[in-house]
Protein backbone atom coordinates (compact mmCIF):
# COMPACT_ATOMS: atom_id res chain seq x y z
CA UNK A 1 0.00 0.00 0.00
CA UNK A 2 1.34 3.41 -0.99
CA UNK A 3 1.86 6.05 1.67
CA UNK A 4 -0.66 8.44 0.09
CA UNK A 5 -3.30 5.68 0.03
CA UNK A 6 -2.64 4.89 3.68
CA UNK A 7 -3.12 8.56 4.55
CA UNK A 8 -6.49 8.61 2.76
CA UNK A 9 -7.68 5.55 4.69
CA UNK A 10 -6.44 7.03 7.97
CA UNK A 11 -8.37 10.28 7.45
CA UNK A 12 -11.59 8.49 6.54
CA UNK A 13 -11.64 6.90 9.99
CA UNK A 14 -12.39 10.22 11.72
CA UNK A 15 -15.99 11.36 11.94
CA UNK A 16 -15.19 14.63 13.69
CA UNK A 17 -14.58 17.29 11.04
CA UNK A 18 -12.09 19.29 13.08
CA UNK A 19 -10.00 16.23 13.99
CA UNK A 20 -9.99 15.01 10.39
CA UNK A 21 -9.00 18.43 9.05
CA UNK A 22 -6.21 18.77 11.60
CA UNK A 23 -4.75 15.41 10.64
CA UNK A 24 -5.25 16.25 6.94
CA UNK A 25 -3.15 19.42 7.24
CA UNK A 26 -0.36 17.56 9.04
CA UNK A 27 -0.28 14.48 6.80
CA UNK A 28 -0.39 16.71 3.71
CA UNK A 29 2.65 18.52 5.09
CA UNK A 30 4.37 15.15 5.51
CA UNK A 31 3.54 14.08 1.94
CA UNK A 32 5.12 17.30 0.68
CA UNK A 33 8.43 16.08 2.09
CA UNK A 34 8.09 12.28 2.03
CA UNK A 35 7.02 10.70 -1.26
CA UNK A 36 3.47 9.41 -1.21
CA UNK A 37 4.47 6.79 -3.79
CA UNK A 38 6.59 4.91 -1.25
CA UNK A 39 5.29 1.55 -0.06
CA UNK A 40 4.52 1.78 3.67
CA UNK A 41 5.88 -1.72 4.24
CA UNK A 42 9.25 -0.62 2.88
CA UNK A 43 9.53 2.63 4.84
CA UNK A 44 12.49 2.73 7.22
CA UNK A 45 13.27 5.11 10.08
CA UNK A 46 15.98 6.70 7.95
CA UNK A 47 13.30 7.72 5.42
CA UNK A 48 11.66 9.89 8.11
CA UNK A 49 14.73 11.27 9.87
CA UNK A 50 15.02 14.32 7.62
CA UNK A 51 11.32 15.09 7.97
CA UNK A 52 11.57 14.70 11.76
CA UNK A 53 14.42 17.22 11.79
CA UNK A 54 12.36 19.59 9.66
CA UNK A 55 9.57 19.49 12.25
CA UNK A 56 11.89 19.82 15.20
CA UNK A 57 13.89 22.74 13.81
CA UNK A 58 11.16 24.80 12.15
CA UNK A 59 11.87 28.37 13.38
CA UNK A 60 8.35 29.57 12.54
CA UNK A 61 6.59 27.02 14.77
CA UNK A 62 6.09 27.12 18.51
CA UNK A 63 7.12 24.16 20.64
CA UNK A 64 3.43 23.22 20.92
CA UNK A 65 3.02 23.19 17.12
CA UNK A 66 6.16 21.10 16.62
CA UNK A 67 4.95 18.65 19.24
CA UNK A 68 1.50 18.46 17.62
CA UNK A 69 2.98 17.60 14.22
CA UNK A 70 5.36 15.01 15.67
CA UNK A 71 2.64 13.32 17.74
CA UNK A 72 0.19 13.30 14.83
CA UNK A 73 2.71 11.62 12.48
CA UNK A 74 3.50 9.07 15.19
CA UNK A 75 -0.22 8.43 15.63
CA UNK A 76 -0.58 7.81 11.89
CA UNK A 77 2.20 5.20 11.80
CA UNK A 78 0.97 3.59 15.02
CA UNK A 79 -2.40 3.21 13.31
CA UNK A 80 -0.67 1.41 10.43
CA UNK A 81 0.86 -0.99 12.96
CA UNK A 82 -2.55 -1.49 14.57
CA UNK A 83 -4.20 -2.49 11.27
CA UNK A 84 -1.16 -4.69 10.53
CA UNK A 85 -0.16 -2.80 7.40
CA UNK A 86 3.37 -2.55 8.85
CA UNK A 87 5.10 -4.48 11.60
CA UNK A 88 6.93 -1.60 13.31
CA UNK A 89 6.49 2.17 13.21
CA UNK A 90 9.36 3.85 11.33
CA UNK A 91 8.49 7.08 13.17
CA UNK A 92 9.16 5.63 16.62
CA UNK A 93 12.80 6.74 16.79
CA UNK A 94 12.97 8.96 13.71
CA UNK A 95 10.54 11.61 14.97
CA UNK A 96 10.73 13.08 18.46
CA UNK A 97 7.79 14.71 20.22
CA UNK A 98 9.36 17.01 22.78
CA UNK A 99 7.54 17.40 26.06
CA UNK A 100 5.86 20.71 26.79
CA UNK A 101 6.28 22.43 30.13
CA UNK A 102 3.63 20.59 32.13
CA UNK A 103 2.39 22.99 34.78
CA UNK A 104 -0.14 25.53 33.48
CA UNK A 105 0.54 28.83 35.21
CA UNK A 106 -2.36 30.81 36.61
CA UNK A 107 -1.92 33.59 34.07
CA UNK A 108 -3.15 31.09 31.46
CA UNK A 109 -6.52 31.08 33.23
CA UNK A 110 -9.11 33.80 32.84
CA UNK A 111 -9.24 35.90 36.01
CA UNK A 112 -12.41 36.55 37.99
CA UNK A 113 -12.26 40.22 37.00
CA UNK A 114 -11.92 39.41 33.30
CA UNK A 115 -14.79 36.94 33.55
CA UNK A 116 -16.97 39.59 35.23
CA UNK A 117 -16.25 42.06 32.40
CA UNK A 118 -17.18 39.49 29.76
CA UNK A 119 -20.39 38.43 31.51
CA UNK A 120 -21.44 42.08 31.77
CA UNK A 121 -20.82 42.43 28.02
CA UNK A 122 -22.83 39.30 27.13
CA UNK A 123 -25.96 40.30 29.07
CA UNK A 124 -27.69 41.39 25.87
CA UNK A 125 -26.00 38.86 23.55
CA UNK A 126 -27.89 35.60 24.23
CA UNK A 127 -25.72 33.21 22.19
CA UNK A 128 -22.45 34.58 23.56
CA UNK A 129 -23.87 34.58 27.08
CA UNK A 130 -24.84 30.90 26.84
CA UNK A 131 -21.43 30.01 25.43
CA UNK A 132 -19.42 31.88 28.08
CA UNK A 133 -21.48 30.42 30.92
CA UNK A 134 -21.16 26.89 29.55
CA UNK A 135 -17.37 27.25 29.31
CA UNK A 136 -17.26 28.82 32.77
CA UNK A 137 -19.22 26.01 34.45
CA UNK A 138 -17.87 22.98 32.64
CA UNK A 139 -14.38 23.84 31.43
CA UNK A 140 -15.17 21.88 28.26
CA UNK A 141 -13.05 22.23 25.14
CA UNK A 142 -14.31 24.59 22.44
CA UNK A 143 -14.67 21.64 20.06
CA UNK A 144 -17.21 20.11 22.43
CA UNK A 145 -19.22 23.34 22.50
CA UNK A 146 -19.04 23.71 18.72
CA UNK A 147 -20.50 20.25 18.15
CA UNK A 148 -23.09 20.46 20.93
CA UNK A 149 -26.63 19.60 19.79
CA UNK A 150 -29.88 20.59 21.46
CA UNK A 151 -30.67 16.90 21.88
CA UNK A 152 -27.39 16.44 23.82
CA UNK A 153 -28.58 18.72 26.64
CA UNK A 154 -30.30 17.22 29.67
CA UNK A 155 -31.91 20.28 31.25
CA UNK A 156 -33.54 18.31 34.05
CA UNK A 157 -30.21 17.05 35.40
CA UNK A 158 -28.21 20.04 34.14
CA UNK A 159 -25.69 18.08 32.12
CA UNK A 160 -24.81 17.58 28.47
CA UNK A 161 -22.89 15.22 26.21
CA UNK A 162 -19.99 16.70 24.27
CA UNK A 163 -17.71 15.10 21.72
CA UNK A 164 -14.20 16.46 21.93
CA UNK A 165 -10.78 15.68 20.48
CA UNK A 166 -10.28 12.14 19.30
CA UNK A 167 -14.04 11.73 18.83
CA UNK A 168 -14.41 11.02 22.55
CA UNK A 169 -17.88 11.66 24.00
CA UNK A 170 -18.23 12.57 27.67
CA UNK A 171 -20.59 14.28 30.09
CA UNK A 172 -20.23 17.83 31.35
CA UNK A 173 -22.19 19.59 34.09
CA UNK A 174 -23.57 23.11 34.40
CA UNK A 175 -25.71 25.04 36.84
CA UNK A 176 -29.08 26.81 36.78
CA UNK A 177 -27.87 30.16 35.44
CA UNK A 178 -26.27 28.42 32.48
CA UNK A 179 -29.36 26.27 31.89
CA UNK A 180 -31.46 29.45 31.72
CA UNK A 181 -29.02 31.06 29.29
CA UNK A 182 -28.99 27.97 27.04
CA UNK A 183 -32.81 27.76 27.00
CA UNK A 184 -33.09 31.46 26.24
CA UNK A 185 -30.74 31.23 23.27
CA UNK A 186 -32.32 28.05 21.89
CA UNK A 187 -35.80 29.59 22.06
CA UNK A 188 -34.63 32.80 20.39
CA UNK A 189 -33.08 31.08 17.37
CA UNK A 190 -34.88 31.28 14.06
CA UNK A 191 -36.99 28.32 12.88
CA UNK A 192 -34.85 25.86 10.99
CA UNK A 193 -31.72 26.80 12.92
CA UNK A 194 -30.83 23.13 13.01
CA UNK A 195 -29.68 20.74 15.73
CA UNK A 196 -26.47 22.52 16.73
CA UNK A 197 -26.75 24.90 19.66
CA UNK A 198 -24.27 27.62 18.73
CA UNK A 199 -24.95 28.00 15.02
CA UNK A 200 -27.57 29.90 13.06
CA UNK A 201 -27.49 28.15 9.67
CA UNK A 202 -28.15 24.53 10.63
CA UNK A 203 -24.56 23.45 10.08
CA UNK A 204 -22.01 22.78 12.83
CA UNK A 205 -19.85 25.79 13.52
CA UNK A 206 -16.10 25.33 13.23
CA UNK A 207 -14.25 25.35 16.55
CA UNK A 208 -11.91 28.09 15.34
CA UNK A 209 -14.85 30.33 14.43
CA UNK A 210 -16.52 29.78 17.80
CA UNK A 211 -13.21 30.48 19.56
CA UNK A 212 -13.10 33.84 17.78
CA UNK A 213 -16.27 34.82 19.63
CA UNK A 214 -14.25 34.82 22.84
CA UNK A 215 -11.16 36.52 21.42
CA UNK A 216 -13.22 39.29 19.78
CA UNK A 217 -15.11 39.98 22.99
CA UNK A 218 -11.83 40.32 24.88
CA UNK A 219 -10.49 42.67 22.23
CA UNK A 220 -13.59 44.89 22.29
CA UNK A 221 -13.42 45.10 26.06
CA UNK A 222 -9.76 46.08 26.01
CA UNK A 223 -8.71 42.89 27.79
CA UNK A 224 -5.62 40.83 27.04
CA UNK A 225 -5.78 38.17 24.34
CA UNK A 226 -8.17 35.50 25.64
CA UNK A 227 -9.49 32.27 24.19
CA UNK A 228 -11.74 29.40 25.26
CA UNK A 229 -8.85 27.46 26.83
CA UNK A 230 -8.45 30.26 29.39
CA UNK A 231 -11.85 29.13 30.77
CA UNK A 232 -10.67 25.52 30.81
CA UNK A 233 -7.51 26.42 32.70
CA UNK A 234 -9.59 28.38 35.22
CA UNK A 235 -11.64 25.27 35.91
CA UNK A 236 -8.52 23.14 36.25
CA UNK A 237 -7.03 25.49 38.85
CA UNK A 238 -10.39 25.69 40.66
CA UNK A 239 -10.46 21.91 41.02
CA UNK A 240 -6.87 21.82 42.26
CA UNK A 241 -7.43 24.68 44.74
CA UNK A 242 -10.50 22.88 46.10
CA UNK A 243 -8.30 19.81 46.75
CA UNK A 244 -10.48 17.67 44.47
CA UNK A 245 -8.93 14.23 43.96
CA UNK A 246 -6.96 14.24 40.67
CA UNK A 247 -8.87 11.19 39.41
CA UNK A 248 -12.17 13.07 39.79
CA UNK A 249 -10.73 16.30 38.36
CA UNK A 250 -9.45 14.34 35.33
CA UNK A 251 -12.96 12.99 34.71
CA UNK A 252 -14.44 16.48 35.05
CA UNK A 253 -11.97 17.89 32.51
CA UNK A 254 -12.03 14.93 30.13
CA UNK A 255 -8.33 14.13 30.53
CA UNK A 256 -7.17 10.71 29.38
CA UNK A 257 -5.22 10.21 32.61
CA UNK A 258 -5.12 11.79 36.08
CA UNK A 259 -1.38 12.26 35.48
CA UNK A 260 -2.20 14.95 32.90
CA UNK A 261 -4.37 16.76 35.43
CA UNK A 262 -1.68 16.48 38.10
CA UNK A 263 1.01 17.84 35.80
CA UNK A 264 -1.14 20.71 34.54
CA UNK A 265 -2.81 22.03 37.67
CA UNK A 266 -1.56 20.46 40.88
CA UNK A 267 1.55 22.23 42.22
CA UNK A 268 4.55 20.07 43.01
CA UNK A 269 6.81 22.66 44.68
CA UNK A 270 8.22 22.62 48.20
CA UNK A 271 6.40 25.79 49.28
CA UNK A 272 3.02 24.22 48.52
CA UNK A 273 4.02 20.96 50.17
CA UNK A 274 5.28 22.75 53.29
CA UNK A 275 2.05 24.75 53.55
CA UNK A 276 -0.07 21.60 53.47
CA UNK A 277 2.17 19.77 55.93
CA UNK A 278 1.89 22.64 58.39
CA UNK A 279 -1.91 22.73 58.04
CA UNK A 280 -2.11 19.03 58.85
CA UNK A 281 0.30 19.38 61.76
CA UNK A 282 -1.77 22.25 63.18
CA UNK A 283 -4.93 20.16 62.86
CA UNK A 284 -3.21 17.33 64.73
CA UNK A 285 -2.21 19.70 67.51
CA UNK A 286 -5.78 20.97 67.86
CA UNK A 287 -7.29 17.48 67.90
CA UNK A 288 -4.72 15.90 70.21
CA UNK A 289 -6.18 15.53 73.71
CA UNK A 290 -4.18 17.13 76.48
CA UNK A 291 -2.52 14.41 78.55
CA UNK A 292 -3.40 14.20 82.22
CA UNK A 293 -0.23 13.97 84.24
CA UNK A 294 -0.66 11.99 87.41
CA UNK A 295 1.89 12.66 90.10
CA UNK A 296 2.78 9.91 92.50
CA UNK A 297 2.74 11.60 95.90
CA UNK A 298 3.12 8.50 98.00
CA UNK A 299 6.42 8.00 99.68
CA UNK A 300 8.00 4.73 100.37
CA UNK A 301 9.19 4.63 103.78
Q: What does the model show?
A:
The protein is mainly α and 301 residues long. Helix content is 54%, strand content 5%. It has helices spanning 3-12, 17-31, 45-56, 63-82, 91-94, 112-121, 126-138, 142-146, 176-188, 207-220, 228-241, 246-253, 258-265, 270-287; strands spanning 153-154, 159-164, 168-173. Strands 1-2-3 form a three-stranded antiparallel beta sheet. A hairpin with a 3-residue loop joins strand 2 (159-164) and strand 3. Helix 1 runs antiparallel to helix 2 (17-31) and helix 7 packs parallel to helix 11. The chain starts with a helix and ends in a 14-residue tail after the last helix. The mean pLDDT is 90.
> Distance between the terminal alpha carbons, to the nearest Å?
104 Å
**Total beta strands:** 3
Biggest sheet, strands in spatial order? Answer: 1-2-3
Q: Give the overall form.
A: globular
Helices and strands: which structural class? mainly alpha
Mean pLDDT across residues = 90
- Alpha plus pi helix count: 14
Q: Which regions are unreliable across 5 or more consecutive residues at pLDDT < 50?
A: none
- Element order: H for helix, E for strand: HHHHHHHHEEEHHHHHH
What about the largest sheet? 3 strands, antiparallel
- Bin the helical content: 40-55%
Q: Note the quaternary state here.
A: single chain
**What proportion strand?**
under 5%
* Cα-atom radius of gyration: 26 Å
Helix-strand layout with pairing:
Elements (H helix, E strand, L loop, with lengths): L2 H10 L4 H15 L13 H12 L6 H20 L8 H4 L17 H10 L4 H13 L3 H5 L6 E2 L4 E6 L3 E6 L2 H13 L18 H14 L7 H14 L4 H8 L4 H8 L4 H18 L14
Antiparallel strand pairs: 1-2, 2-3
Helix pairs in contact: 1-2, 2-4, 7-9, 7-11, 12-13
